[in-house]
Here is the input.
Amino acid sequence: MINNTSSYPLSSVPPGPAEKHDINISEESFPVIRELVKAYPDICRIGAKSRVQDTYLLNHPDAVKRVLIDNHKNYVKGVGFERVKLLLGNGIIVSN
Here is the structure.
């Protein structure tokens, strides 16, 4: 479990809205993210409108630690990040 208030095992698909959203780093996404965090405070799966892969919004420290530290090798970013790395360097956005 992520924490005592979570009601799903880590092996299951996290809850999320039925409506699909494209979550980006943009002014349009911020109000959507704000509402999603209110509705799903720990972790949320968001179906993407224009991408194949779903988006996952992690807001609980244990979930973030699981992805970034404990099981980081299980989470791979797409090939497009290699191109972004040329522009931004090896920061948090592009590092594995």
About this structure: The two ends are 24 Å apart (CA to CA).
